[in-house]
């Protein structure tokens, strides 16, 4: 008669075997496996029971007639432990089949949690805040729905009230400052240089009828009349976030200087280069940055090219070569005589000599010119369609009134075509410190911050906001800022977008199996390509 035998091994595991009595001794017929936990033991016992119960196997392919397991005639010791049964006990009870009681994506959560910890955010010592951050990275959801996302990630979520208290605690304990400090240290440790920071701002509007001391109706590029706050973001040259600040109804152009000064004071930085887009280009901003001993590189509108490049147009016409860079000056306000069109050579900007001008670098790109020509052609065709009455629309570009008639503004169109392919950059950094080519390349790093803002406004759903209290608003933005840092780090390590990483890793489901009144979590089988992603995340990048 065959029976199930359990034996303690030297390694401390419990071996499950099918045996029989032969000549007064036990003979091992089949070794089913070794268990290190009670759940594993339950699975092995179930498998052994299935082998004995399976009448279709005839003689178990072992030459032994199967028999159902039976209880021992002698009562077992009181409540023996499953991993340490009494030697005399056989199979005391019938084992039922294992059941999958749940699956989850804890592989993804553990990978993101590792990045969160490696960035130094564990200094907050707040598991609920960490859960909210990682849930937001994985899925766009509200506080009410965060528990569902966390459950899908294999985590036991805190109650809604506890989450609410976490938002209050985040502001009271200054989580935003602590996260910003950790981000700065991470950036410095990675690049060894944070002398160049990239700045941009955006407006976040609220679904509310009235504003308050934080949410105010103010300047909005979207022409919205909802209460809003203006959020400024600083990132390093790799797009990793360094600072987030927010105010009420200020225009974006008046927000950049306080953000930079706060960042400079927090980290005791003296020498910095600030890069910003053309929207930040205001005479007041540049003067304030210069007076604060901050160096800047900002984009210049193409409409300033005729003034800045007046000498070039006089001596060389509108001909440019691909990749050509012209280093000259631009008036701080209006016009001046620093760039004399009678002189063929462009002036070399000197801060002491040209006190009424900034340094201007203009670059020409044939690829940009082709793109600009295409855009202008579309605008010209739209203008002609409106003039011909073929299309009813607001007055488009290059359409003007002449004697009561609607005509094509050929002069404006020709002037625009003359400037295609040009891109300007204004700076207060002398050529002896930073060559023109480096000015251009530093500005082009601005796309990193734009990518970060796209993530924060769309993928991380920072807007529109339905939060009402200041604690909730500030905590929400702190969560978004922290989630943005985790997302950017994952992207930097894997070379994939965070959306792509989540899409590939979330289907890796761990299974929870219940058997013999206990349960065990079994990890998923991970394909080689997913293993490479996880390896990059845990080890800090594909190049490590």
Count of β-strands: 16
For the record, give the distance between the C-alpha atoms at the N and C termini, rounded to a whole number: 58 Å
Kindly state the percentage of residues in helix: 25-40%
Morphology:
elongated
Number of helices: 17
Strand proportion: 15-25%
Notes on the structure:
It is a single chain. By secondary structure, this protein is α+β, with helices and mostly antiparallel strands. Helix content is 38%, strand content 20%. The chain has 17 helices and 16 strands. Strands 7-6-5-8-9-14-11-10 form an eight-stranded mixed beta sheet, with helices on both faces. Helix 5 packs across helix 15. It is elongated and about 115 Å long. The two termini are 58 Å apart. Residues 55-84, 86-95 and 207-226 have low confidence and may be disordered.
Would you kindly provide a brief summary of this structure?
The chain is of the alpha+beta class. It is built from 17 helices and 16 strands.
Write a concise keyword list for the protein shown above:
544 residues; alpha+beta; three-stranded antiparallel beta sheet; 16 strands; 38% helix
Topology summary:
Blueprint: E1 2-8, E2 14-22, E3 25-35, H1 38-53, E4 99-104, H2 106-118, H3 127-138, H4 146-152, H5 160-172, H6 175-191, E5 196-205, E6 228-235, E7 241-247, H7 256-267, E8 273-276, H8 283-291, E9 295-300, H9 305-308, H10 310-316, E10 325-331, E11 357-364, H11 366-387, E12 399-402, E13 405-408, H12 410-418, E14 422-427, H13 436-444, H14 446-459, H15 470-494, H16 498-505, E15 510-515, E16 518-522, H17 528-539
Parallel strand pairs: 5-8, 8-9
Antiparallel strand pairs: 1-2, 2-3, 4-15, 5-6, 6-7, 9-14, 10-11, 11-14, 12-13, 15-16
């Amino acid at each position: 008669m065959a029976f199930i035998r359990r034996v303690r091994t030297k390694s401390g595991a419990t071996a499950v075997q099918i045996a029989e009595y032969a000549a007064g001794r036990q003979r091992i017929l089949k070794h089913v496996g070794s268990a290190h936990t009670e759940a594993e033991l339950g699975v092995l016992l179930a498998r052994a029971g299935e082998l004995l119960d399976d009448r279709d196997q005839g003689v178990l392919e072992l030459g032994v007639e199967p028999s159902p397991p039976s209880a021992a005639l002698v009562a077992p010791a009181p409540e023996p432990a499953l991993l340490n049964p009494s030697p005399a006990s056989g199979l005391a009870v019938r084992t039922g089949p294992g059941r999958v009681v749940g699956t989850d994506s804890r592989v993804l959560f553990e990978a993101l949690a590792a990045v969160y910890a490696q960035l130094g955010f564990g200094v907050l010592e707040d598991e609920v805040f960490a859960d909210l951050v990682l849930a937001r990275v994985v899925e766009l959801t509200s506080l009410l729905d965060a528990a569902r996302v966390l459950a899908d990630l294999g985590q036991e979520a805190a109650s809604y009230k506890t989450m609410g208290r976490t938002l209050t605690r985040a502001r009271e304990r200054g989580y935003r400052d602590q996260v910003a400090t950790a981000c700065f240290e991470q950036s410095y440790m990675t690049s060894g240089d944070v002398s160049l920071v990239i700045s941009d701002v955006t407006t976040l509007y609220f679904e509310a009828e009235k504003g308050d001391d934080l949410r105010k109706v103010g300047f909005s590029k979207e022409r919205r009349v909802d209460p809003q706050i203006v959020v400024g973001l600083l990132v390093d040259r790799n797009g990793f976030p360094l600072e987030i600040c927010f105010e009420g109804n200020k225009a974006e152009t008046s927000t950049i200087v306080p953000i930079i000064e706060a960042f400079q004071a927090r980290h005791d930085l003296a020498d910095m280069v600030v890069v910003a887009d053309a929207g930040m280009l205001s005479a007041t901003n540049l003067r304030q940055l210069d007076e604060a001993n901050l160096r800047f590189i900002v984009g210049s509108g193409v409409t300033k090219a005729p003034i800045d490049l007046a000498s070039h147009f006089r001596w060389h016409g509108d001909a440019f070569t691909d990749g050509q860079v012209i280093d000259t000056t631009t008036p701080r306000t209006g016009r001046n005589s620093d760039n004399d069109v009678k002189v063929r050579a462009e002036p070399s900007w000197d801060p002491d000599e040209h006190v009424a001008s900034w340094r201007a670098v203009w670059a020409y790109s044939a690829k940009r010119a082709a793109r600009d020509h295409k855009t202008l052609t579309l605008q010209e065709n739209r203008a002609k369609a409106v003039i011909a009455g073929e299309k009813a629309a607001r007055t488009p570009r290059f359409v003007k009134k002449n004697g009561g008639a609607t005509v094509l503004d050929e002069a404006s169109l020709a002037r625009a075509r003359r400037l295609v392919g040009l891109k300007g950059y204004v700076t207060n950094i002398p050529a002896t410190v930073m060559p023109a080519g480096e000015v251009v390349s530093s500005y082009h790093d601005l796309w990193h911050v734009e990518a970060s803002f796209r993530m924060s406004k769309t993928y991380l759903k920072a807007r529109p906001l339905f939060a009402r209290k200041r604690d909730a608003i500030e905590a929400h933005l702190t969560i978004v800022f922290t989630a943005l840092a985790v997302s950017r780090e994952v992207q930097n390590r894997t070379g994939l977008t965070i959306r792509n990483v989540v899409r590939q890793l979330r289907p890796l489901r761990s299974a929870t199996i219940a058997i013999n009144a206990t349960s065990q979590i079994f990890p998923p089988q991970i394909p080689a390509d997913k293993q490479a992603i996880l390896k990059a995340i845990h080890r800090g990048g594909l190049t490590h």
